[in-house]
Structures are given as structure tokens and as C-alpha cells.
Specification:
Length: 120
Amino acid sequence: GDACLYGTHTAGILSGDTLFQMLGIGATRGVFLTDVNGVYTADPKVANATFVPAIGVDGETGDLVFLEDDFIIAASESLHPEDTTGGFNTKLASALLVARSNTKVSIAKCGSDSAVNALR
């Protein structure tokens, strides 16, 4: 996120995820780059976290649809005290909102082959 001035005496942090949410609706595609390989059922540092390879959005309900298996995603706020932008929970919520507008959304690890492919 970036520091922004709000009014004359107030400052805050504007999340890149929030910007994506505001600008991504109606776009052809959007890509979130992270420091992990994508979406997991829990924090990927936890031993039992499972990688979720693909998620879709139901065209009628707007709900998440898991394309290969049924998963439960336990997204949470950031555990890093310096991160004031909401962590993965905010990222996933923003991605879902944008995907509901028929925008193809990818979440990939920065520098990975998946990220390169998503950006093409």
C-alpha cells in the first residue's frame, strides 16, 4: 500500500488490492502478484495448507466455485504488523469482486512462470 492524504490533517494507507478492486471491474484481466504460489486453504507456512489450483465464480450467484475439488479457504488478515492493508483476506475479496464482473483474475507468485503467463 501507499500513504495517501485524506483531507487536511488525515493520512492513511491505500491498499493496492483496493485500487485493483476500483479499477479492475470491467477490465479484460487482472493479476495479483504475491510472495506465495497462489491461493492456499490456510497460511502456506502451515504444514497442512493445501494449494488451490483454480477457483471460478458462479455466473448466477457470484459465489466462489472450486474447479477441481471442494476446499475451505481460511484467509486471514496479515500477520505482519507493518501491513495495514488487510492481508490475503482483502486480496481474495477484491479478486472475487472483480471476477464477478467477468474479468479474468489471476493470483500468482511474483517472478514465477505462472506470473509471467498471467501477464501475457
